[in-house]
Write a structure and sequence with these properties.
The strands form two sheets. A three-stranded mixed beta sheet has the order 4-3-5, with no helix packed on it. It has a two-stranded antiparallel sheet with strand order 1-2. The chain has seven helices and five strands, in the order ααααββββααβα. By secondary structure, the protein is an alpha+beta fold. The relative contact order is 0.14. α2 crosses α3 and α3 crosses α4. The N and C termini lie far apart (about 45 Å). Bound molecules: zinc ion (2 copies). The site of one zinc ion has 6 residues, from loops.
Length: about 140
């Protein structure tokens, strides 16, 4: 998702493009990793020393609600946020019975902690992810 997409999404949902929101988006674009609200606040406070953590918290909430940010929980009780990678690509549920495939509006990369990939200095360009199983119709077919 690029800045333009995010701005359009905010506008479509009746949100103004405030400098604070732009700054939050810029930080998340630059960092490309999961950040807590505190970490986002610290990074922004270099530019906006008067911005309160509450404001960051509220704005991050708005962006998460609009599906601009993915929220992840690494089990330490602190929510972390990362910009969704979605560029319109889709993943599928593939039925082993009838061969039908169904799109899912979900990308595992958005919820993954990509530290292990970054540590290898690997620049990800694309990926594939399919889930195989049996669709509802196949599961309920008379044998
Ligand atoms: Zn099927
Ligand atoms: Zn994906």
């Amino acid at each position: 998702m690029n800045v333009q997409d995010i701005i359009i999404k905010l506008r479509e949902n009746g949100y103004k493009i405030t400098p604070q929101r732009q700054e939050i988006i810029a930080v998340l674009m630059h960092e490309k990793k999961h950040l807590t609200v505190e970490e986002i606040h610290t990074l922004i406070s270099h530019h906006y020393p008067n911005l309160s953590p509450d404001t960051v918290y509220r704005n991050v909430g708005v962006l998460a609600q609009l599906n601009v940010l993915a929220r992840a929980d690494f089990g330490d009780g602190r929510a972390r946020y990362k910009l969704l990678e979605h560029d319109g690509h889709k993943h599928h549920l593939v039925c082993l019975g009838c061969g039908n495939s169904e799109e899912v509006d979900f990308c595992p990369l958005d919820y993954m902690d990509s530290r292990a990939i970054r540590d290898k200095k690997f620049d990800v360009k694309r990926h594939s992810f399919e889930i195989y199983g049996y669709c509802w119709a196949c599961r309920h077919k008379e044998v």
